[in-house]
Amino acid sequence: MTEAHRPLHGQKAIVTGASSGIGAGIARAFARAGAAVGINYRSGRDAAEALVEEIAREGGEAVALGADVSDEAQVQAMFRAALGAFGRLDILVANSGIQQDAPFAEMTTAQWRRVIDVNLTGQFLCAREAVRTFLAQGVTPDGPSRAAGKIVCMSSVHDVIPWAGHANYAASKGGVALLVKTLAQELAERRIRVNAISPGAIRTPINREAWATPEAEAKLLALIPYGRVGEPEDVAAAAVWLASDASDYVVGATLYVDGGMTLYPAFRDNG
Predict the structure, then answer these.
(1) Are strands 254-257 and 91-94 parallel, antiparallel or unpaired?
(2) What's the whole-model pTM score?
(3) Which of 51, 125, 242, 257 lies at a C-alpha separation of 20 to 30 Å from 233?
């Protein structure tokens, strides 16, 4: 792929939760699209460093950035480290997310708080540092992008689909959905674009039980009109587009990468 055909050529990015799953897929896609990538991890240091080495072997640039995104001081240190490595920042993909599932009557305060802390407060903390950086940099006429900065927040189809037994997760993703729109409204005039991706069923370690056996996968496919389970590469392709100038006029949007899961598939046969 030539430099001219790499849509993120010359840009610098942080992808949180990038040591596995969707985040790792996005980091790979960004590097192949020409971006230097900060690969954030909380506990998966070996996997993050292996991904850095993989990207380097392919001719890309990446660094591993350890931080718990729910910890303000660690997030600020992560951004300082990224700026020290790259000199600037153009893109944040706020991807970190966890599940701690329980029936609502049995859900503990600790389970509720931890999921909200990572999935929602973590996105706030990372987005705030990114915005501060983008505002300080401004738009440079000969810069790598038409925008001052791009933020892509990872939400979920469960920002619109209720999910029994996962109240903390659904609440966190519903919060992300409106956070994105509010930030987009506030920051568009400063040439900062904020958008979201809401994945459906994606084949990652976090939901292995849902697709690991033929029986489980068949049950899952009943919810997906398009007839296949998604792959991290499906989400990564959307992230590259939202981070590139090809989507320069897209502001405050949520892109559902879900094979039609949000289309109420139970109504396909007239209910």
Answers:
(1) unpaired
(2) 0.96
(3) 125
